[in-house]
Amino acid sequence: MKYLLLCLALALTVCLPAAPALRAQEQETKKKAEETELGRTMEKLNGAWRKLRRQAADPASNVASLELVAIIKAGGEKALTLTPARAADVPAADREEFITDYRKDMKDFLFQIGKLEEAFKAGDNTAAPDLVKKIGDLQKEAHKEFKRPDK
Fold it and tell me: What topology does CATH give the domain 36-146?
């Protein structure tokens, strides 16, 4: 009996510290399996967007802001050609309309990014923060509608 308890205690000592690491590894593997081309594209776009939001009001950053806008535009144009993973969750009868709505919203996003680009080119850093806010609001609404909820 003592031997059995000793083996159990030893097994728990070895396995318990490893359990959180195994769970984290399983979650990472699951996350990578769920990644899509659209998700990867949006991650790149989002990195540029976060930087752009912070510097939009600064006229000294307009050249850098235009470079970030170019990254965002390229990502948006690529995303326009892709289909959100959530489309697979939509009933087949509604799927085409869902994809059409997604593309319409992406075109609106790109139009607003074009207006932001023009503001930076014109040195209009008073309008840029308002456009950034408007684009951010569009993004939040679109994510509610087209992005799969995080698990």
Answer: Four Helix Bundle (Hemerythrin (Met), subunit A) (1.20.120)
